[in-house]
Amino acid sequence: MNKFRFREWQVYKDSKRLFVLLLSVVKKLPREYRFEIGSQIIRAGLSVALNIAEGSGKHSDAELNRFIDIALGSLFEAFAAVDVLLECQLVDQTVFSEIEKLTLSISDQLGGFKKRIRSDKL
To answer: By the 8 A CB rule, do 22 and 45 touch?
Structure first.
């Protein structure tokens, strides 16, 4: 068994790419926003990848499903924060669109994991 099987999963690769994009957004924020909203975005974005990785090491479907749910929650949290930044004109529309597209893809992939877990139980 590959102990680090998550490294082969496209959803994990995409979550790392999202994290890099989120870091670039935070780096461009005015200094007064970097600590509060910037650190929140970084934590939420990193949580997506970390929960995918942690869930991959679990031995039951219920445990894996729980970590997928946590990853989804963090994904939505990070996206919502960037959406607020867009509303405040603190992020470029082009960057926002790229993050939105990647977020949708990751969400679909995680949803696919959840469906697969349910269908494997039947």
So the answer is: yes
pLDDT tens, position by position, 5-28? 899 999 999 999 999 999 999 999
Give pTM, 2 decimals: 0.91
- Give me 105's structure tokens: 């893809």
- CA–CA separation, 103 vs 51, rounded Å? 15
Beta-carbon neighbour count of residue 82 at 10 Å?
Answer: 24
Burial class for 71, CB neighbours closer than 10 Å (0-12, 13-18, 19+): buried
Residues 6 or more apart whose CB falls under 8 angstroms from that of 51 comprise 67, 68, 70, 71, 74
Domains along the chain with CATH numbers: 8-121 (1.20.1440.60)
